[in-house]
């Protein structure tokens, strides 16, 4: 069966961490380092990986719901310090990511980011990669509501004057899939990110990508999923 749904899509909205950029291990490392610094009850790698995609306040709340507001602020500050220090050596985009984005843009598609990062963090990493002016729009968790609430997708659609049917969300976590479903938007999962693909399938993605370059074929109607 060939998917032709992609031919109708004008706007491609991408998650950032774990979808376009290979940053999951760095996020987990920074979170565990912050936990150790503050001498909090330990969390596993899997527990830290599970919060990737949420806004930082929501991530800390998820890991430590019992912490006071002051404790949560201290945790957020410690995580930010550890992540920025680790990110002095920038993460790399996933193979084929930049080429795929360029091909979609050259084909007349609009490109956007919907991320759990804050605005300062996204600006820093896009600047480091020379991509500050590459995307048509970006939304961050500290200027809207965190995933899986659909507000950031609603805001992106409103900014472009497009209905949900004209857009698709591409992501690697349950939060991406749930956000898109909550917005009435089609969704595409990637199988190499923070959450196991089995968790994403319950959200009925239009397809699951093994590599981002498959998006180009999908949009042209020529992508055939494995039997």
Primary descriptors:
single chain, 227 residues, alpha/beta, Rossmann fold, DNA polymerase, domain 1, 2 domains, six-stranded parallel sheet, 10 helices, 6 strands, globular
What would you note in describing this structure?
The chain is an alpha/beta fold and 227 residues long. 42% of the residues lie in helices and 12% in strands. Strands 3-2-1-4-5-6 form a 6-stranded parallel sheet. The longest helix is centred in the middle third of the chain and has 18 residues, at 69-86.
Question: What is this entry, summarized?
Answer:
With 227 residues, the chain is an alpha/beta fold. It contains ten helices and six strands, in the order βαααααβαβαβαβαβα. A six-stranded parallel β-sheet has the order 3-2-1-4-5-6.
**What is the mean pLDDT?**
92
The profile of the biggest β sheet is:
6 strands, parallel
Number of strands: 6
The N- and C-terminal alpha carbons lie at a distance of 9 Å
Q: What is the succession of H and E elements?
A: EHHHHHEHEHEHEHEH
Number of helical runs? 10
Helix amount: 40-55%
Per CATH, the superfamily of the largest domain is: HAD superfamily/HAD-like
Number of self-contained structural domains: 2
Structural class estimated from helices and strands: alpha/beta
């Amino acid at each position: 069966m060939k998917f032709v749904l992609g031919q109708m899509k004008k706007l491609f909205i991408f998650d950032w961490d774990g979808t376009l950029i290979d940053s999951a291990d760095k996020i987990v490392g920074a979170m565990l380092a912050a936990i150790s610094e503050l001498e909090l009850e330990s969390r596993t790698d899997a527990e830290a990986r599970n919060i990737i995609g949420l806004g930082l306040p929501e991530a800390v709340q998820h890991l430590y719901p019992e912490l006071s507001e002051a404790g949560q602020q201290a945790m957020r500050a410690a995580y930010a310090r550890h992540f920025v220090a680790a990110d002095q050596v920038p993460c790399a985009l996933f193979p084929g990511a930049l080429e795929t984005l360029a091909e979609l843009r050259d084909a007349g598609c609009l490109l956007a980011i919907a991320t759990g990062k804050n605005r300062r963090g996204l600006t820093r990493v896009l600047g480091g990669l020379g991509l500050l002016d590459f995307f048509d729009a970006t939304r961050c968790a500290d200027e809207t509501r965190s995933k899986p609430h659909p507000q950031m997708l609603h805001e992106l659609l409103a900014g472009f004057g497009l209905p949900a049917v004209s857009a698709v969300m591409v992501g690697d976590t349950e939060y991406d899939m749930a956000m898109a479903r909550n917005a009435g938007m089609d969704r595409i999962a990637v199988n190499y990110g923070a959450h196991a693909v089995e968790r994403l399938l319950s959200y009925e993605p239009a397809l699951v990508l093994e590599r981002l370059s498959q998006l180009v074929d999908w949009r042209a109607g020529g992508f055939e999923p494995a039997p």
